[in-house]
Amino acid sequence: MAGEDVSRNFRALVENADRKFARVRDLPTFGRAQSHYFHKVFKAYMKLWNYQQSHRSKLVESGLNRWEIGEIASRIGQLYFSQYMRTSEARFLLEAYVFYEAILRRRYFEGEAHGKDLGARFKELRFYARFLLVSLIVDRKDMVLHLAEKLKVLVDDSKSNFRETNFKEWRLVVQEITRFIESDAELTYVRPLRYCAMLDSYPASQTYLARFHAKKLFKFRDALLASYHRNEVTKVVFKLQVLSGAERGEPVAMLLSPLKPSFENPSTDDTDTLNGSQFTFFLTAPLQAFSQMLGLSNSNPDPEVYDEAESILSASFSEWETILLTSKVLNLVWAQVLPDPFLRRLILRFIFCRSVLTSFSRTEDDDPYLPQCHPNLPELLSPVSKPVQSSVQRLADHLGVAKSFHFNKT
Question: In whole angstroms, what is the distance from residue 350 CA to residue 370 CA?
């Protein structure tokens, strides 16, 4: 096939794939998207990718730039990530990481010619931003640090070489990722923060899951995560179904953040200390959030003390999970949520957070400092119920901070 024909066919495949990509990109990132959209656009990009691999030499001779190859791979990575956001299936996230890592390793976006092309520069900036997000989620800390530095250098270079273009938004991106990394570096995590099947599964309650056979079960992909705090990294408000569902009268489950954070020493600069939402911290890493609230060191905890604290919390969550799954008065909305292990974990962490903040001693009115949920959870899991409050008291006694709480005498 002549070089001109190869180039013409390649451009046609690019245009076809880009049209399909635009349709998928405009779909909402929450809820159940039509899966056939993803398959169509993915098929178009894989056809394009295979074609450029088979005719690489002729395409390069006809003027194909390396950054154009990188852009194709980046789009495929973006497709995988968008599908992960819609389904919460980790395999899509890992595929996105593989493609992005290959782009970085093969240095598709690097080169003198690309440095003079503003459009290509923006594609490179977006690539680093997307790869950073994926690396954060899969917890590749070394890669995060490497990408953050690369992005900072690239933004500085962009300001120097494209003086007529405003890169203010990209400077903000660099500042926010730097703030996130600094906040994350303050903590030494002994275990994974997010749901881990090995560490967060409680065998005692597994037999009770079988009774949840509602016609419609919620999964993590049905969740809408929202934030209204400027410095928040993840979420404050957790809502199930999408908002349009609530407007149509469909059931919605909500875990709502307090209006104010709580600290043992409120005289310190809470905003700088927290670097995000305390509620988010409790839902992500409950023991670390508990320690930070009370001014305990998270950076170098005593291993024996920390392990026992983890055991207390794990045993409590196991007990609470069994209470949830065997409750006769559980609202149907929560019953639809519980089969999903990740959402179940968030509910248990919410129960812990609410009880901690309810029992925490303060001189002001409690209401702005307390989280809420809708609909109500069973009374046996209320903030001051014996199974919940006794667990918080046991943890406080173990860490030597019981004086910071007021517990009901039972």
Answer: 11
Is residue 108 helix, strand or coil?
A: coil
> Are the beta carbons of 278 and 289 closer than 8 angstroms?
yes
Beta-strand ranges (E) seen in 130-236 are 223-226
pTM for this predicted structure: 0.62
Six-digit token pair at 319?
Answer: 């007990």
What pLDDT sits at residue 309? 93
Residue among 281, 242, 278, 231 at smallest CA distance from 258 = 278
Query: Positive or negative CA dihedral for 58, 64, 67, 71?
Result: negative
Under DSSP, the state recorded for 408 is P
Tokens (6 digits) for 270 = 């809470």
Radius of gyration of the chain (CA): 25
> In what helix (H) or strand (E) does residue 373 lie, and over which residues does it extend?
strand 372-374
Q: Could you give the domains of the chain?
A: 3-185 (1.25.40), 203-404 (no CATH)
74: tokens are 């980046």
Q: Are 77 and 54 contacting, i.e. CB atoms less than 8 angstroms apart?
A: no
Q: Which residues contact 211 (CB under 8 A, 6 or more apart)?
A: 325
Alpha helices in 338-409 (DSSP H): 341-359, 386-399
State both tokens at 244: 């349009």
Helix, strand and coil in the chain, % to nearest 5: 65, 5, 35
Q: In order along the chain (410 residues), what is the average pLDDT of each group of 10 residues?
A: 82 92 73 68 92 91 89 92 81 92 91 70 93 90 93 92 89 90 63 50 74 58 52 38 51 85 71 65 90 80 86 94 93 85 88 96 82 93 96 96 87
Q: Dump the DSSP string for 250-261.
A: ----EEE--SS-
- Alpha helices in 294-376, H assignment, sequence order: 303-326, 332-337, 341-359
Q: What was the pLDDT predicted at 339? A: 82
